[in-house]
Specification:
Order of helices and strands: HHHEEHHHHHHHHHH
Number of strands: 2
Number of helices: 13
Structural class: mainly alpha
Largest sheet: 2 strands, antiparallel
Shape: globular
Strand content: under 5%
Radius of gyration: 20 Å
Number of domains: 1
Helix content: over 70%
Length: about 325
């Protein structure tokens, strides 16, 4: 943790001396810090990181759709006009910012890898034939990832075109809150406050796949991947802390794949707009804030459950409707 804090300090200085002519629209240290904190804190809490990042980007005025210009006043292209595509695809601030908030997930991923290193090494031992529990856990994570990967890839363009708006996020926050209230009451009614001994590695294949199907709800920005998988874990009998643990582990391949694909597709354009400093800084901030958030969440869920997060989602959703819609 101390090394990460030192890295943040160094990168903050790097952001400070990044000259305006080195990027089409440099991201300020303040903006990079805000987006890093929002990403790290909300990525694993059941409140929707995507929804909060859409809101943060809007408040920071990073959603401009006008084509960016270089220092000489020439338009910058994501895809230059060609015979096959005469109109081309202009490079905009919104496209760069949308890529940025996905790529800095790498910091949050690193935090979970460090916190759950034991489970990861257990899965590796399972692959080597040294841990049956580790192999079962790996199987369950793979099964839980399949539905979201298949549906997400198939519906990616439609989701980007129709669901990335403040209105859609507000609806999703409130809808997800209703599901959380129901799940929490269902858990307490069926098992009381007694802690289940069921471990993520003990899930049957059908149960792991069912959690994966629940995770597909998170394709709707504002619904929350963490919320969907935690609620799915509730319904198959996992205690709150274990449902959160499984949610974190399932998130690793999903988030890594999403960040990797986004980086390959639009990463160079993002660097053209913002430069390297803000990207590295935002990822480092996301790593520290995600580590703190994960430790807090596990302890809190063990004592109190999901209801306070559902209340928070209702409040945020209502504010969004009143303020933006």
């Amino acid at each position: 943790m101390r090394r990460l804090l030192l890295l943040i300090s160094v990168l903050c200085l790097q952001c400070a001396w990044l000259r305006a002519d080195e990027a089409a629209r440099p991201l300020s240290a303040r903006d990079a810090f805000v987006l890093g904190v929002v990403e790290g804190v909300t990525e694993f809490l059941p409140v929707s990181s995507t929804g909060h990042l859409i809101i943060a980007s809007d408040l920071l005025e990073l959603n401009a759709d006008e084509q960016l210009l270089d220092s000489a006043g020439r338009p910058i292209w994501l895809t230059p006009p060609s015979d096959e595509n005469p109109a081309g695809e202009p490079l905009t601030l919104k496209l760069a910012a949308d890529t940025y908030v996905v790529v800095i997930q790498a910091g949050a991923i690193c935090a979970v890898v460090l916190l759950y290193w034991g489970q990861l090494t257990g899965m590796l031992a399972g692959l080597l034939g040294r841990s049956t529990a580790g192999l079962r856990l790996l199987r369950n994570i793979i099964l839980a990832c399949i539905p979201a990967v298949v549906i997400g890839l198939a519906a990616e363009d439609w989701i980007d075109a129709n669901l990335f708006s403040i209105r859609a996020v507000a609806f999703a926050l409130i809808t997800g809150a209703a599901l959380m209230f129901y799940a929490e009451r269902w858990r307490r009614k069926t098992s009381g406050l007694a802690t289940s001994r069921l471990e993520p590695a003990d899930l049957r294949p059908g149960q792991a796949l069912g959690i994966g199907l629940m995770q597909c709800l998170a394709l709707w920005p504002g619904m929350s991947r963490s919320m969907s998988t935690m609620v799915g874990g509730y319904f198959v009998g996992l205690a709150p802390a274990k449902a959160a643990e499984f949610s974190f582990l399932v998130g690793l391949p999903i988030l890594t794949g999403a960040a990797g694909l986004k980086a390959m597709k639009h990463g160079p354009a993002m660097i053209t707009v913002f430069g390297w400093g803000p990207v590295l800084f935002g990822a480092a901030v996301a790593a520290v804030s995600a580590g703190i958030a994960v430790k807090f969440l596990v302890g809190y869920l063990t004592r109190h459950g999901l209801e306070v997060f559902a209340i928070y989602r209702v409040i945020v959703g209502a504010v969004l409707f009143l303020w933006f819609v």
